């Protein structure tokens, strides 16, 4: 009895191993540099994962069109191998092990989200494989002394704290005391949003503002009506929400349904939630932090100006009405890799790591310069407000194209 | 056991030990495979042998994961401070601290879930059939939500695990070895268990619980023990998995009800529940298919998985082993008479 | 942190006590969403009671209905009007699924059927993800909002309409089951399939109809959800869980109990979200389930002991 069963197991095992062997051989073309990425193709961040992968692909396409990357006289085209991490950190870590060990890929593009990136970084660090990411903004990523992780984006604490600063400014201007302002907020229970929340809490403390509603969003981010009822009861002056794309959609819609408003309403991920096209009137006046805006005066030799990038991407992707910053920063990652490859003139990971660390370049996305901890210290977050269905930069003042509309009128 | 089957067991064991050296790039994949084998074996104890289909066994998996993580950190840091810093404190363990922490953590991760199982049995084991299944699913979901609301263990931000000291190659092999050891120990234990009267008792519970009770069987006791056995090994699996992953959080990593929780069931059904090797075969096949589809059918992997489950359940309920048993009963020690037997006693 | 948590819970309760008008808001929110839960739960109970199949894909049927409604609305059909074609389409879909899958698992052990529908659930989720995309969608109903008590309490008109539609549908279902021949056949099959078959009832047809009716009900619920809430391919599980909780708590044959439980669940969730915080909403639902299950169990045990 045992004999035959064992055979079956052995056969299955052998078949599995053979299959794995047959498929895992990575026949990389001699003139292609393959980048690897475990990203959220499915799962709760699937929308944002698509934004990021669209950005990566767009960047690779442009670089290849412009002739690829020349190293030691040889021209290389870029290519990306994707895996689906299902928006799950555990899966991200496993897949990166596979990408690095089995596929032999030596250049990593970051996953989407701070959770998955937090799981990815120890893996790339362990194998000394450089990773450039632009979708994991949590501060905690940059306190671990990772030498092989480089982030093009600004950290999460800077998302909503400028809103508090702006609120204090506006309060002072209208003769009110900033510390009289009350804050109501709801955050998703994940590393990124909690980091954003900490940024708000720290900034509020500076001005002595009181937080009267401090809720977490439910796991599926689909209903915050109980929180909004509380907000109606307590009437805070400032509302802050962060729950990725779904959180923004839910917050905007339910605020309208429940007739909730405040003089300042801010949330993250407005663009990827397509607030202006999905909600028009209900989204007026919302403040949206963004890592990038097409109206900013950045430019580079690959995409031109921010506006050029915007036009080109929209032309290539008819399903987008505006370009969320997640897309732009993903393309910037490809630019950073191409630039580092060119400067290092080598495929060696150590030389590339050093080249990446020394990055100091202008891109359509902003200036890129990494601190010793790996985060980009040369690009500010800007605050935009939805005015007449368009995103308009209102803060910091030197980048502003319009003044902020304050207080926010309740949409009808 | 016969000489032949002993030889085959040893061959399998050797193959298992050799695997990470023959295919070093796949080591972590293989390690997770052993975890899956553990999943299906422990599920079968409750579901296949005892008829209590639990959809919430991941509760013990996650519980063990968190206990181990907390123990590992608590040895050196104040846990509350560590999690509040949200990864800002970089864990700097000495080798000795790491290994002691890990050993103690795994040990407590095995004990903790057992206690939890005992408590949950008292609450849930009075439920029958689908209600038990839904109740356990509820417990697992609640565990995830409550953990993510608890700041001391990091809440939704999770816990960054201490990094394994020692070079990259060594780490994979270490965890592979640990997972394989856990799975093999589980197998040996269950193998012994299934040959005792204990299993006769839980099979009786599966076949007809009321009759078993009427015959004087202390069903509650047996049910609790069975669940505690599952919890023990699942806790260990959780502890190891958490350390392999490097970063744990409650909703997707520690208490993955809709993925691992259901995989446990699917694998066992695939291989044939209520048998010793059925879960193992099921886990092997399932894991292989999953890894292949996740790589080569990107975007379609859940469809493939769903179809596999449907086909298995609709057309193939006995699972592979059950199917084999029907086709080739001789392999299972059942003698098939080809001659009509002489009538014994005239009508 | 613990002290702070209790303090804020107390603060939240204080709000409800000092400004009772907000209780009305919570009730309105809860009842309107509870009405949709009631539809999903009722369909689940129907299928469960008649065929013994526990449809873990219930929530995904709801989502599919929502997406069909969304597609129709993109072609200019108003969502409320779309309910009829969506109901019909989902009926057909339910029929197809019955013939392909459900028919074969009906006679099997109860848990196996649960797993079959689970396989169906994950397949449906992924197919919807591929076909409709991962974006969260919502339908504009074009209706306004009722502002009451000086803006303290608001309810969108569509929610009121949705509540009404759910009520109408529920009444229609009850009448169908009680008055029509097929309804009788369904009830007979639910009581005893073999006896029904002996008496000439085509049980296979009954099963198919039941499952398809459930699918249609879910489809309608889905369109309503798309209007008052959001749809997304992976959101179905929330409805499946709640439907199961309601059916388990209310019992299978008891239609009024299902309705009341569903409405109650909607309201309790709102209160839990308000007092404890939204992150505890699902945990509350689940804890309630456990409490009810255990209480039932204690009752049963006492009953059994009494018999001895």
Description:
The complex is a heterotrimer of chains A (412), B (347) and C (308). With 412 residues, chain A is an alpha/beta fold. Chain A has 2 domains: 31-154 and 295-369, Response regulator (Rossmann fold), CATH 3.40.50; 158-290 and 382-399, Response regulator (Rossmann fold, 3-Layer(aba) Sandwich). Chain A contains 12 helices and 17 strands. Chain A has helices at residues 2-24, 46-65, 89-101, 114-127, 161-173, 191-207, 225-234, 244-258, 275-279, 306-316, 325-344, 349-357, and strands at 32-39, 69-71, 74-84, 108-109, 131-133, 149-151, 182-187, 210-216, 238-242, 264-267, 287-290, 299-300, 304-305, 360-363, 366-369, 382-387, 390-395. In chain A, the strands form 6 sheets. A 4-stranded parallel beta sheet of chain A has the order 8-7-9-10, sandwiched between helices. Chain A has a 3-stranded mixed beta sheet with strand order 1-3-2. In chain A, a hairpin with a 2-residue loop joins strand 14 (360-363) and strand 15. Chain A is globular. The termini of chain A are far apart. The model of chain A is unreliable at 1-9 and 11-29 (pLDDT under 50). Chain B is an all-alpha fold and 347 residues long. Chain B has a domain at 27-252. In chain B, helix 12 (257-271) packs across helix 13, helix 12 (257-271) runs parallel beside helix 15 and helix 13 (278-296) runs antiparallel to helix 14. Chain C is mainly alpha-helical and 308 residues long. Chain C has a single domain (2-307), classed as Orthogonal Bundle (ABC transporter involved in vitamin B12 uptake, BtuC), CATH 1.10.3470. Chain C is built from 12 helices and 2 strands. Chain C has helices spanning 2-18, 21-51, 58-74, 79-105, 110-132, 157-179, 181-191, 193-198, 203-228, 236-250, 255-275, 281-307, and strands at 145-148, 153-156. Chains A and B meet through helix 1, strand 3, helix 3, helix 4 and helix 6 of A and helix 1, helix 2, helix 7, helix 10 and strand 2 of B.
């Amino acid at each position: 009895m045992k004999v035959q069963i064992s055979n079956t197991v052995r056969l299955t095992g052998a078949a599995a191993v053979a299959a794995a062997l047959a498929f895992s051989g990575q026949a990389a073309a001699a003139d292609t540099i393959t980048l690897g990425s475990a990203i959220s193709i499915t799962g709760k961040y699937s929308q944002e994962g698509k934004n990021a992968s669209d950005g990566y692909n767009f960047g690779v396409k442009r670089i290849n069109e412009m002739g690829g990357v020349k190293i030691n006289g040889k021209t290389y085209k870029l290519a990306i191998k994707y895996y689906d991490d299902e928006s799950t950190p555990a899966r991200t870590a496993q897949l990166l092990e596979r990408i690095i060990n089995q596929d032999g890929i030596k250049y990593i593009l970051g996953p989407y989200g701070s959770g998955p990136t937090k799981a990815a970084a120890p893996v790339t660090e362990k194998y000394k494989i450089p990773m450039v990411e632009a979708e994991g903004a949590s501060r905690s990523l940059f306190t671990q002394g990772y030498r092989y992780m480089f982030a093009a984006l600004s950290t999460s604490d800077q998302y909503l704290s400028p809103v508090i600063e702006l609120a204090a400014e506006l309060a002072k201007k209208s003769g009110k005391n900033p510390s009289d302002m009350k804050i109501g907020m709801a955050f998703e229970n994940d590393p990124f949003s909690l980091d954003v929340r900490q940024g708000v809490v720290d900034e509020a403390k500076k001005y002595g503002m009181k937080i009267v509603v401090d809720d977490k969003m439910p796991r599926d981010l689909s209903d915050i009506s109980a929180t909004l009822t509380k907000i109606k009861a307590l009437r805070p002056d400032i509302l802050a929400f962060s729950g990725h794309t779904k959180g923004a959609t839910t917050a905007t819609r339910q605020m309208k349904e429940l007739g909730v408003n405040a003089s300042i309403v801010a949330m993250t991920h407005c663009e990827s939630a397509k607030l202006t096209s999905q909600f028009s009137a209900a989204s007026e006046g919302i403040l949206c932090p963004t890592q990038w805006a097409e109206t900013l005066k950045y430019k580079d030799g690959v995409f031109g100006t921010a506006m050029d990038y915007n036009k080109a991407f929209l032309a290539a992707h008819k399903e987008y009405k505006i370009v969320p910053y997640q897309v732009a920063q993903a393309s910037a990652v490809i630019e950073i890799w191409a630039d580092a490859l060119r400067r290092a003139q080598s495929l060696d990971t150590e030389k590339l790591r050093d080249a990446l660390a020394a990055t100091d370049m202008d891109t359509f996305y902003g200036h890129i310069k990494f601190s010793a901890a790996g985060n980009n210290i040369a690009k500010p977050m800007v605050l935009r407000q939805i005015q007449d269905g368009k995103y308009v930069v209102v803060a910091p003042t030197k980048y502003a194209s319009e003044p902020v509309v304050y207080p926010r009128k309740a949409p009808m | 056991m016969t000489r032949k089957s002993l030889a085959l067991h040893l061959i399998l064991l050797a193959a298992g030990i050799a695997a990470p050296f023959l295919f070093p790039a796949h080591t972590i994949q293989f390690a997770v495979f052993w975890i899956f084998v553990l999943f299906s074996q422990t599920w079968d104890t409750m579901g296949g042998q005892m008829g209590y289909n639990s959809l919430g066994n991941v509760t013990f998996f996650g519980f063990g994961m968190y206990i181990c993580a907390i123990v590992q950190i608590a040895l050196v840091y104040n846990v509350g401070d560590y999690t509040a810093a949200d990864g800002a404190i970089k864990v700097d363990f000495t080798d000795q601290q790491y290994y002691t922490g890990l050993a103690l953590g795994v040990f407590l991760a095995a004990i903790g879930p057992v206690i939890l199982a005992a408590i949950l049995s008292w609450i849930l084991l009075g439920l029958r059939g689908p209600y038990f299944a839904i109740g356990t699913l509820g417990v697992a979901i609640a565990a995830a939500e409550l953990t993510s609301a608890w700041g001391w263990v990091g809440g939704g931000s999770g816990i960054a695990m201490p990094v394994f000291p020692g070079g990259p190659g060594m780490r994979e092999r270490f965890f592979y070895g640990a997972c394989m050891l856990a799975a093999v120990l589980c197998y040996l234990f269950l193998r012994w268990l299934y040959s005792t009267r204990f299993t006769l008792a839980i099979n009786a519970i599966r076949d007809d619980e009321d009759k078993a009770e009427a015959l004087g069987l202390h069903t509650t006791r047996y049910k609790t023990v069975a669940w505690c056995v599952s919890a023990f090994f699942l806790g260990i699996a959780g502890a190891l998995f958490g350390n392999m992953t490097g970063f744990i959080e409650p909703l997707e990593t520690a208490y993955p009800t809709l993925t691992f929780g259901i995989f446990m069931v699917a694998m066992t059904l695939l291989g044939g529940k209520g048998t010793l090797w059925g879960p193992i075969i099921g886990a092997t096949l399932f894991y292989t298919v999953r890894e292949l589809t996740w790589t080569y059918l990107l975007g379609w992997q859940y469809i493939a998985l769903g179809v596999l489950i449907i086909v298995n359940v609709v057309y193939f309920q006995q699972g592979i082993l059950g199917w084999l048993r029907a086709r080739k009963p001789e392999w299972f020690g059942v003698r098939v008479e080809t001659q009509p037997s002489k009538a014994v006693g005239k009508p | 942190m613990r002290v702070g948590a209790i303090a804020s819970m107390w603060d939240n309760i204080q709000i409800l006590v000092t400004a009772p008008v907000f209780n009305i808001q919570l009730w309105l929110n809860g009842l309107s969403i509870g009405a949709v839960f009631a539809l999903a739960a009722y369909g689940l109970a129907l299928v469960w009671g008649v065929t013994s199949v526990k449809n873990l894909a219930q929530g995904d049927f709801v989502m599919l209905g929502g997406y069909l409604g969304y597609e129709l609305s993109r072609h200019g059909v108003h969502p409320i009007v779309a309910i009829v074609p969506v109901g019909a389409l989902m009926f057909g879909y339910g029929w197809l699924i019955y013939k392909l899958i459900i028919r074969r698992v009906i006679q099997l052990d109860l848990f196996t059927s649960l797993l079959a529908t689970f396989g169906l659930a994950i397949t449906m989720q992924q197919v919807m993800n591929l076909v409709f995309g991962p974006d969260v969608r919502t339908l504009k109903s074009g209706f306004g909002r009722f502002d009451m008590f000086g803006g303290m309490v608001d309810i969108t008109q569509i929610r009121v309409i949705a509540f009404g539609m759910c009520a109408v549908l529920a009444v229609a279902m009850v009448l169908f089951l009680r008055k029509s021949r097929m309804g009788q056949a369904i009830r007979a099959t639910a009581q005893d399939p073999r006896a029904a078959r002996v008496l000439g009832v085509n049980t296979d047809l009954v099963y198919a109809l039941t499952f398809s009716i459930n699918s249609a009900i879910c489809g309608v619920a889905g369109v309503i959800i798309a209007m008052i809430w959001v749809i997304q391919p992976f959101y179905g599980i929330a409805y499946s869980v709640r439907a199961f909780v309601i059916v388990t708590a209310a019992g299978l044959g008891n239609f009024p109990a299902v309705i009341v439980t569903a409405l109650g669940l909607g309201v309790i969730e709102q209160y839990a979200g308000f007092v404890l915080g939204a992150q505890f909403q699902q945990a509350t639902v689940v804890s309630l389930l456990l409490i009810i299950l255990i209480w039932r169990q204690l009752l049963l045990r006492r009953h059994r002991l009494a018999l001895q």
